Design the sequence.
C-alpha cells in the first residue's frame, strides 16, 4: 500500500513537472495564401505574392498540440528586429499585410513557447521558421510535377501527395477546404524531428489534416486556385 501511494505521488509530481513544454516533433505548415482568404473579406493577397507562405510552426505530440505552454514569455518585437523584413515576406499576415506582429505574437504564444526547451528563445523560433521555409517550397514541389494554379483544372490528392514526396522524399500532410461547391488545396505541412530532419508525417496526422480532401485515387477534384470566387 505504501509503495502504491508512493508511486502515485511520484506519478503526480512527474506529470505536473512535465505538462508544460513537452513535445515530440514539429509540424511546419505552408499555405496557399488565396485559399486562406476564402470567405474572408478582410483578407487579401497582393497581386505580386505568388508563392506559398508560412502558416504555422507547431511543436506537437502525436496526440495533440501542447497549449498555453509558457505564455509568460511574451512576444518581444525587438528579438526579431534584425530579420523582420524577411519574416514579413515569408510569414506574412494577409489580414493585415503591413502589420504582421499580432499574427507572429499569436504563433509565438500559442506554439513557440511550447518549444522553449529545445529552441530557447523567440529569436531562435522565428529564425528556425525561416530556415525550414527554405526546405519546404511547396509551390516549387508541385510545379515540378506540372501542378500549377488554375481555376479550371483540378488535381487528385494522390498526385499532390506524390509530387511532394518526390521532391522531399518524405510524406507530408495536405489540407483542403471548401470554396463554394469546390474543394481547394489550402496547406501542405511537413514534419521535422527535434534535430530538424524531415521525416514522414504519421498516417494519423495525414488522415486528420486531409479529412476535407477527397482521397479516392481516381478523384481529381482538388483545385489549386488562381483567383478567389464565391
Ligand atoms: C473587417 O474589418 C473591419 C474594419 O477593421 C471590421 O470592422 C470588420 O469587423 C471586419 N470584418 C470581419 C469579417 O472580420
Ligand atoms: C526585448 O528584447 C530585447 C532584446 O533581446 C531586450 O533587450 C528587452 O529587454 C526585451 N524587452 C522585454 C520587455 O522583455
Sequence:
Amino acid at each position: 500500500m505504501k509503495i502504491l501511494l508512493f508511486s502515485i505521488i511520484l506519478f503526480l509530481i512527474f506529470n505536473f513537472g512535465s505538462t508544460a513544454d513537452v513535445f515530440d516533433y514539429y509540424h511546419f505548415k505552408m499555405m496557399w495564401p488565396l485559399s486562406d482568404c476564402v470567405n474572408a473579406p478582410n483578407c487579401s493577397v497582393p497581386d505580386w505574392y505568388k508563392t506559398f507562405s508560412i502558416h504555422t510552426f507547431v511543436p506537437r505530440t502525436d496526440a495533440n498540440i501542447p497549449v498555453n505552454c509558457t505564455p509568460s514569455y511574451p512576444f518581444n518585437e525587438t528579438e526579431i528586429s534584425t530579420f523582420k523584413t524577411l519574416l514579413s515576406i515569408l510569414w506574412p499576415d494577409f489580414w493585415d499585410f503591413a502589420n504582421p506582429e499580432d499574427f507572429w505574437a499569436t504563433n509565438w504564444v500559442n506554439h513557440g513557447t511550447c518549444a522553449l526547451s529545445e529552441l530557447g528563445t523567440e529569436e531562435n523560433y522565428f529564425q528556425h521558421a525561416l530556415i525550414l521555409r527554405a526546405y519546404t517550397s511547396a509551390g516549387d514541389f508541385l510545379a515540378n510535377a506540372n501542378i500549377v494554379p488554375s481555376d479550371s483544372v483540378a488535381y487528385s490528392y494522390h498526385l499532390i501527395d506524390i509530387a511532394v514526396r518526390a521532391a522531399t522524399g518524405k510524406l507530408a500532410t495536405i489540407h483542403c477546404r471548401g470554396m463554394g461547391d469546390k474543394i481547394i488545396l489550402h496547406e501542405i505541412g511537413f514534419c521535422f524531428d527535434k534535430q530538424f530532419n524531415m521525416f514522414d508525417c504519421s498516417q494519423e496526422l495525414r488522415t486528420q489534416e486531409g479529412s476535407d480532401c477527397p482521397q479516392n485515387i481516381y478523384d481529381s477534384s482538388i483545385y489549386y486556385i488562381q483567383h478567389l470566387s464565391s
In short: Confidence is low (pLDDT under 50) at residues 3-19. The chain has one domain: 2-223. The domain at 2-223 is CATH 3.90.730.10 (Ribonuclease Rh; Chain A). The first helix runs from residue 2 to 18.
